[in-house]
Amino acid sequence: LSTHRSPFFAQAVEMLGDCDGPASVPGTSRRFAVEDAAYLNGIAAQAMLYSDYCARFDPTATILPALLALAQTAGRPISGAELVTSYLAGFDLAAALAQHSVRDDADRAFVGTAVLGLIAATAAGARLLGLDADGMARALCIVASCVGGVRANEDTAYQGVHAGRSARNAVRSVMLASRGFTSIRSVFEQP
Q1: Closest residue by Cα to residue 154 from 103, 122, 101, 114
Q2: Whole-angstrom Cα distance, residue 8 to residue 110?
Q3: Which label site among 1, 50, 88, 121 has the fewest CB atoms less than 10 Å from its CB?
Q4: Residue 66's closest CA among 44, 92, 93, 99?
Q5: pLDDT tens-digit profile of 85-127?
Q6: pTM value?
Q7: Rounded distance, CA 93 to CA 169, Å?
Q8: Angle 124-181-187 (CA atoms, 0-180°, nearest 5)?
Q9: Which of 109, 113, 114 is nearest to 53 (CA)?
């Protein structure tokens, strides 16, 4: 909760204005749209630069904010075991991608949290909501259009926004896929 006292977090909350959504955010008494809750939780996760960096990204800074927001709007109680299993599903996918991806100039230019973390949070969210294999694939292909975050913004106030934006886009992609939205299925095979 100490990260919720960050001026960056307070500014992000203020920027969203008055909301009356279904999701709560620790450190505030307000309720937010599920996507905004994920965004704020992501900013809070990195606002004080508390990182669990591994596999070229900060997994918890994107996965947990998305899961906490989605769990509040899942329409059923979510167990701790489901939360942990979903977290691990997202983490494992992103860690495998990191292990098998080529390290090049893009690795130095783009923030892993805004690339791999985004994919991890999407896979975790799809797992939490019980999307089948087709739904999971749709969510991942939808979120591929949201990848990005330049490393030049690290160590600035914007660094937390990488995690917040990734969590928000993951939630949005999972919600769209759960409603049948489609995208190109070969997105990860494209040049």
Answers
A1: 114
A2: 22
A3: 1
A4: 44
A5: 999 999 998 888 877 765 654 555 566 777 788 899 999 999 9
A6: 0.88
A7: 17
A8: 70
A9: 113
